[in-house]
Amino acid sequence: QLGEELGGLAGRTVLVRSDLNVPLDGTTITDDGRVRASVPTIRELAEAGARVVVTAHLGRPKGEPDPRYSLAPVAARLGELLGRPVTFVEETVGERATAAVRAMSDGDVVVLENLRFNAGETAKTDEGREEFARQLAGLADAYVSDGFGVVHRAQASVYDVARLLPHAAGGLVRAEVEVMRRLREDPQRPYVVILGGAKVSDKLGVIESLLTVADKLLVGGGMVFTFLKAQGHEVGRSLLEEDQVDTVRGYLETAAEQGVEIVLPVDVVVADAFSADAHHEVVPIDAIPADMMGLDIGPESEKVFAETLADARTVFWNGPMGAFEMEPYASGTKAVAQALVERTRDGAMTVVGGGDSAAAVRDLGWADDDFGHISTGGGASLEYLEGKELPGLQVLED
Ligand code: 3PG
Prior knowledge:
By secondary structure, the protein is an alpha/beta fold. The model has no long low-confidence stretch (mean pLDDT 96). The longest helix has 15 residues. It has 2 domains: 171 residues, 3-Layer(aba) Sandwich (Rossmann fold), CATH 3.40.50; 208 residues, 3-Layer(aba) Sandwich (Rossmann fold). The protein is elongated, with a radius of gyration of 22 Å. It is 38% helix and 17% strand. The chain is built from 16 helices and 17 strands. Helix 8 crosses helix 15, helix 10 crosses helix 11 and helix 12 packs parallel to helix 13. Bound molecules: 3-phosphoglyceric acid (3PG). The site of 3-phosphoglyceric acid has 9 residues, from loops. It is an enzyme of class 2 (transferase).
């Protein structure tokens, strides 16, 4: 398919934008899900005889080289997963990058250094990105957009390059968009959404639009304390976004008017410090002590959430239920993952979105195929569901 759209692949140099933004501990990749998800398109191109130039970002360096964010370990992992040699170039554009690309043979794969070591990648204006985009485009004959996790970014390698080269969407972007489109336009009902993670302010837009599509919304994670506060509960030292309390109260009212059930925890695990060995206990939500913080949903809430999910035909989950990376606060996230696995086995469409939730389910020992779909997109999937125009998709349609 890519070959047809791009007018042939053999012998042509194809610039691929992947999302290889993986969590690292030093130089060790702690979750390689995005690398694995990027393999099929790169393999497809290489096997068709293209010269594949892979570009990606890692973290948020400040527009100049920063060794902590080098893609070198990611390129090595890509080579292992592809089962073919991958050449890493310590530069994104410039003499060394050009020489490395010129030296390629058909079927070779090169990974260029972190795009964000160049200020032009993330510049806010078209003019600011233009030169860097031209340099990137100058390396190749065609462009494949395969980084679904970045399609919400109007950045040089996502947006501007597509305007300079013959282009196509890669298999990952196509598959992700199809899943997200079904969630947005055509979910089988009941459609239950589970939202967690630290900040409600990151999810305002998506909550608003979910209230017009979903049947039930379960809320956990750090963001739930702003909901509990909006309902009049005291939340002690838990995460709270005071400035969002009124907005959230508005959501609770809208949900009630529209018949969308918002399900909040009935109990929480509170601790006297944000640490695994802090003193912790389970309390009902109307008895959170003033000097403690909520770090997970409690066991009664796990049951309520599981019951709410029991008849769901479509489930979208974004954001952990608690500070799952610390064992005493992992139970709520495990329970939600377990409920999703059961729904998947029952034939429901289940989608896990967002780097943290995807890493959480893998960390907890689940395999990708225990779920219907694990999205590589965090912000991108939320913005898609919110109904926003995503520059990286729009430019491909244009
Ligand atoms: C992500 O991690 O969601 C994507 O890789 C995008 O990264 P960004 O939020 O730094 O643009």
